[in-house]
Amino acid sequence: MAKRPTKKNLKAMHLNMVRIRRFEETAGRMAENGKIPGALHLYVGEEAIAAGVMQHLSDEDQITSTHRGHGHLVAKGGEFKPMFAELFGRSTGYCGGKGGSMHVSNMKVGMLGANGIVGGGPPIAVGAAFSNKYRKTKNVAVAFFGDGASNEGSFHEAANMAALYKLPCLFVCENNGYGEYTPQANHQAVVDVADRASGYGMPGVIVDGMDVMAVYEAAGEAIDRARNGEGPTLLECKTYRFYDHVGVRGMGLTYRTDEELALWQARDPVSAFEKNLIDLKVMTQDEIDSVYAEVNAALDEAVDFAEQSPYPDPSVLLDDVYWVGGD
Q1: Cβ proximity of 101 and 35 under 8 Å
Q2: Are the CB atoms for 69 and 106 separated by under 8 Å?
Q3: Contacts of 62 (CB under 8 A, 6+ apart)
Q4: Which residues have a Cβ under 8 Å from the Cβ of 213 and sit 6 or more positions away?
């Protein structure tokens, strides 16, 4: 049974959700204005998942992410300035401006990287979990991935190995109902991705991914189980992305209806949690407004920092590039 959250926990989750929401909205606006090169996959609507899971993790615990990875890094402790610098392709970014949106990482807080390869994260998380067990630490590795990635062989191989060796690992499926532009019903026969857990001998748990408290409780139990040597869990969080697959306006494809979007937006995880915090007398509206003001000011500084930072020098092109093989 997960520990009941303290007021400090609740405020920390709220802060993370606001930081993610405002970071993504700002990044989306920058991309629309041509300030950020390349594709940008935004996490707006899914904030409750990263905030709820990460509240149980320390810098020594590891996570692997997806192409939609900004929210995970923000919640894991990522700072706005090097994050925006990375998105802008500047040398002061977390990866020296060479990773960009889909490959941003920060090893100091245990963020092993966003990943442009669908399903690329679970095997990396299993490797980290194996290392944790081998070194007899209590650290846990968490793999975030989507419903589409749960069809990939990489996920199934990782799940099988994690369960076989009872690795301290948590698989978090952020099921937003679409694999890019394809509805879930058109790319897999199962309704609940969590049902796949039984094939590997691990628990499969379904939670409302729009409810940060539901995520917090389920993730807490699964992470405690992993730390205690009882093996992995597959946690499926039912959620929805408010923006398109890529960017804000996307590619103009009509693969979902305005009515569907409106129904999910009415369940906005950030505003719903803020209402609960006020009802529980954990925070006042003035305190919530102050959080937004502080986050907005930090974002303004971060964007200015990124815009003034230099591009990487061509001489560092091959720095941090590795390969395995012959001469």
Answers
A1: no
A2: no
A3: 110, 111, 112, 125, 128, 129, 132, 139, 140, 141, 142
A4: 5, 52, 273, 276
- pLDDT per residue as tens digits for the range 11-47: 999 999 999 999 999 999 999 888 898 889 999 999 9
**Within 10 Å of residue 287's Cβ, how many Cβ atoms?**
13
Task: Quote the CA–CA distance of 308 and 166 in Å, as a whole number.
Answer: 48
Is 37 in a helix, a strand, or coil? coil
Q: Which CATH superfamily is domain 7-310 in?
A: Thiamin diphosphate (ThDP)-binding fold, Pyr/PP domains (3.40.50.970)
Distance CA 72, CA 142 (A): 11
- Name the residue type at position 161: M
**Model-level pTM greater than 0.90?**
yes
DSSP state for residue 193 in the 8-state scheme: G
CA 136, CA 324: separation in Å to the nearest integer?
28
Cα Rg of the chain (Å, integer): 19
Strand partners, 182: 179
pLDDT of 317-326, one tens digit each? 888 877 777 6
- Say if residues 65 and 121 touch (Cβ distance below 8 Å): yes
